[in-house]
Design brief:
Keywords: Metal-binding, Zinc, Zinc-finger
InterPro entries: TRIM45/56/19-like (IPR047153), Znf-RING_euk (IPR027370), Znf_B-box (IPR000315), Znf_RING (IPR001841), Znf_RING/FYVE/PHD (IPR013083), Znf_RING_CS (IPR017907)
Protein name: TRIM3 protein
Distance between the termini: 50 Å
Structural class: mainly alpha
GO molecular function, one term: ubiquitin protein ligase activity
Order of helices and strands: HEEHEEHHHEEHEHHH
Shape: rod-shaped
Number of strands: 7
Bound molecules: zinc ion
Strand content: 5-15%
Number of helices: 9
Low-confidence stretches: 1-5
Number of domains: 3
Organism: Branchiostoma lanceolatum
Mean pLDDT: 84
Radius of gyration: 52 Å
């Protein structure tokens, strides 16, 4: 801490002390998080580590000696700290004790060396002796020096008391600001926490919905494949049989046999059957019963956020 001649209120000291070195700031620099630290302290941290976590608000700042240099100075704090530093090295003021101060006044008059200064001229604001009363202070309002000193002491004491009251008011206001800053910081952390929580809930919900929808599409697709297979497989047999029978009958015809043999009868039967089937169907060939893959759009729901 600064010199022993200083008796700053604790709240004021708190505002002027760097949290890193716990001394009165030297060249205070303002970080992007708006908290202030000594340039030297920040440069030291920059040498150790590229990123710096603010001890007040935990905000992370990338630090290099250059960025520290470019950070703005906290000019108000700088001016105040300079005054304190200067005051700290100033020789201590030797304050007169009450008796010594009074002795200074109750001496003999400079003009009338044999007369003691016992009076005080209100108009000239100066001590006087009884001889002065008829000369330079003729017609001036006078009072005893004792009364004048007492009045002055009372007036000064009243001012000091008033000053101390003001200091107390300021200090409690400053302490309040500090508390407000702390609670704002807590509120910010809470807000961030609930945003992250809501985000994670939404992500989980979306992921669940995605999985369910993908599963559903897959199931329907399998059903469609199954339907296609059930339509195609018997048709393959029919086509095969028709082809084989056609070939065989054609071969027989080339051998010019007169009557229908079994194969020919079978061909007539199969062709008749297929022809009838095709004629019955609304389309030339039966279509498998397919399931449409209706998919609802995957949109996040906001109601959890809004509450
Ligand atoms: Zn410091
Ligand atoms: Zn900070
Ligand atoms: Zn005199
Ligand atoms: Zn006078």
């Amino acid at each position: 801490m600064a010199g022993k001649s200083l008796s700053l209120p604790t709240v004021l000291q708190q505002e002027l002390i760097c949290e890193l070195c716990e001394e009165i700031y030297s060249t205070p620099k303002v970080l992007p998080c708006l908290h202030t630290f000594c340039q030297d302290c920040l440069e030291e941290r920059a040498k150790e580590n590229e990123s710096f976590d603010c001890p007040v608000c935990e905000a992370r700042t990338e630090l290099t000696p250059e960025t520290v240099n470019q950070m703005p100075e906290n000019t108000a704090i700088l001016a105040l700290c300079d005054r304190i530093h200067n005051q700290a090295v100033m020789p201590e003021l030797v304050l007169d004790s009450e008796e010594e101060e009074e002795a200074k006044y109750f001496t003999n008059c400079d003009t009338h060396e044999n007369e003691k200064l016992q009076l005080y001229c209100v108009q000239c604001k100066a001590p006087a002796c009884t001889e002065c009363l008829d000369e330079i202070h003729a017609g001036h309002r006078m009072m005893t020096l004792r009364k004048a000193l007492d009045d002055r002491k009372a007036a000064i004491t009243a001012f000091v008391t008033r000053g101390k009251d003001l200091i107390e008011n300021y200090c409690s206001f400053l302490a309040g600001l500090r508390e407000t800053e702390k609670s704002l910081h807590e509120q910010k952390q809470q807000a961030e926490g609930s945003i992250i929580q809501a985000y994670e809930q939404m992500i989980k919900k979306l992921t669940d919905t995605k999985e369910t929808m993908l599963r559903d599409v897959n199931t329907k697709h399998q059903q469609n494949l199954q339907a296609i297979r059930q339509t195609r497989d018997p048709m393959l047999t029919e086509v095969y049989e028709l082809a084989v029978t056609c070939d065989a009958v054609k071969e027989n015809l080339e051998q010019t046999r007169a009557e229908f043999n079994d194969r020919e009868k079978h061909l007539i039967h199969v062709v008749g059957m297929v022809t009838e089937k095709v004629a019955r169907a609304p389309t030339p060939l039966p279509t498998p019963p397919l399931t449409p893959l209706h998919v609802a759009p995957l949109t996040p729901q906001r109601q959890e956020w809004d509450t």
